[in-house]
Every structure is written in structure tokens, then in C-alpha cells.
Specification:
- Strands 2, 5, 6, 8, 12, 15, 16 and 18 form an 8-stranded antiparallel sheet that branches. Strands 4-3-7-17-9-10 form a 6-stranded antiparallel sheet, with no helix packed on it. Strands 1-11 form a two-stranded parallel sheet.
- The chain is globular, with a radius of gyration of 17 Å.
- It has no helices and 18 strands.
- It has a single domain, classed as Exo-inulinase, domain 1 (Jelly Rolls), CATH 2.60.120.
- It is an all-beta fold.
- Bound molecules: magnesium ion.
- The site of magnesium ion (MG) has 7 residues, from strand 9 and strand 10.
Length: about 250
């Protein structure tokens, strides 16, 4: 949702539903803050030869905003969030994803406001993007959280104005009819540090409510980047679709 700055979420109970297998509520501000790891830094990985490059600094051809052209802008080789979300024209299932993101220096950042975006895998599962260096919020809403579900193992965010890197390995849920056999899972390295280790999503991302899986689910879907009212920036955005090993391939 664009232009919405949430109320302070740090230090207070949320009043939202309780998470399963946890004493905490969705967006619980009393949940312990992840340990801070200083001196992390963006890991820049050049797209390998078999990558699908989704943004290389030159154009937004791989992206759209609904039926329209991508609403974001390119400034100094970065794609800059504006107006509404953007989604990839192509659909993906299991992927390795690399992206670098930045909250520009000089913006006022507080809690969920000022430095918020998100990478929605399959358009459904958010890896939160938030300027979380010296900016406390409810832990399941900070950078590299599975938003509304699971905080990162540690807080590897560096200071505002720095480029940050995400390396993400995602597998979609596996269904048997309308039954979820395997949940969606994600591993995330933030600035080179493991912050989510093969973590299961409770279901597609929700706000203030408990996530759960729908009865039907696409096999592949576009990646969506969130515009949350903040001019967050992305660069060097590529994915590698992950298939199964084909022994007939040399
Ligand atoms: Mg977000």
C-alpha cells in the first residue's frame, strides 16, 4: 500500500493474532530484537552467464505496473520506486535471486516509514526491505524478515545511503490437490550473512493477520517489488530459475 506510514511498532504488543509455535503475535513489538552485526557490507555478484537479468541499470523492459509500463524511474543506474508496485513480465517458481537495494541518505526514516519496500517472491511472499540500521521496528517487519511471520536471525543492515545486498534461494510450496505437502521455503543472505536458513513461510504474506495457504496456488508467478511510499532504489537485479539436475546435460 502506497503512502502509508504505520504507527510505531517497537516495544508494544500488537493485538494481532498469535503466531503458531511462538509466544508472540503478528508484528509483536515485544519480540526480541535480532542481534546487530556491524561491519557487514553489500556483496556485489555479477550476473552469471545463465542468469536472467531483470535490471542492469539501463531500462525497465523486464517490468510492468499492471497493464501499464513500469511506473518506476531510472536514476543514475538504479531503479527508483515511485507511484505503485512493479512486477516482472516473466513468471518464476524456484529461483536464486540477487539484488542490491538502498535507502537514499537524507530521508527521514522511522520504524516502518521512510525506508520501506519489499521483494514479493511469486508476488505473494515478501522478503522485507527496510532501512533497519539504528531503526527499531517490530522484528517480523525489519529488513530480511518474512514480513509478519519471522524476523531475520541477525540484523545485518548497514547505514542509510549504503547499498545492501540480498541473495535469496526460494522454493514454492508443493501441493497435493488442495493440500500443502511442503510449504514455500526461503534462504536469505543479507550483505553476505545468512539471515534466513531454509525458513518455511506460513503462507502468502499478510498484514496484521495470520498467513495461511490458499487451496490453489500457481506453479510460477511474477516477482513484485513494493512501493510503500518511499523512493527506495534497486540495482543489479537478476535471477536463476532452479530446475532439477539433468544428467543428460554435458
Ligand atoms: Mg515492505
Amino acid at each position: 500500500m502506497a503512502g502509508i506510514v504505520l504507527a510505531d511498532g517497537f516495544g508494544v504488543k500488537s493485538g494481532n493474532p498469535k503466531l503458531p509455535d511462538s509466544p508472540y503475535e503478528v508484528h509483536d513489538g515485544t519480540r526480541p530484537q535480532p542481534r546487530v552485526v556491524e561491519n557487514a557490507g553489500a556483496v556485489v555478484v555479477k550476473p552469471p552467464a545463465d542468469a536472467k537479468v531483470l535490471f542492469d541499470g539501463k531500462n525497465l523492459d523486464a517490468w510492468s505496473s499492471g497493464k501499464d509500463a513500469a511506473a518506476w524511474q531510472i536514476v543514475d543506474g538504479a531503479m527508483v520506486a515511485a507511484k505503485t508496485d512493479v512486477s516482472t513480465k516473466e513468471s518464476f517458481g524456484a529461483i536464486q535471486l540477487h539484488a542490491e537495494w538502498r535507502c537514499p541518505a537524507g530521508r527521514k526514516v522511522h520504524d516502518q516509514g521512510g525506508g520501506n519496500s519489499g521483494i514479493f517472491l511469486m508476488g505473494l511472499y515478501e522478503v522485507q526491505v527496510l532501512q533497519s540500521h539504528n531503526n527499531k521496528t517490530y522484528p517480523d517487519g525489519q529488513a530480511a524478515s518474512l514480513y509478519g511471520q519471522c524476523p531475520p536471525l541477525v540484523n545485518a543492515t548497514t547505514k542509510q545511503g549504503d547499498w545492501q545486498s540480498y541473495d535469496i534461494i526460494f522454493t514454492p510450496p508443493v501441493y497435493d490437490g488442495e493440500t500443502v505437502k511442503e510449504p514455500a521455503r526461503v534462504t536469505i543472505l543479507h550483505n553476505g550473512i545468512v539471515v534466513q536458513n531454509n525458513k518455511a513461510y506460513l503462507g502468502p504474506t499478510q498484514h496484521k493477520t495470520l498467513a495461511s495457504y490458499p487451496k490453489t496456488h500457481p506453479a510460477t508467478a511474477p516477482i513484485r517489488l513494493q512501493f510503500h511510499g518511499d523512493s527506495m532504489e534497486y540495482r543489479n537485479f537478476w535471477v536463476r530459475p532452479l530446475g532439477t539436475y539433468d544428467q543428460t546435460t554435458p
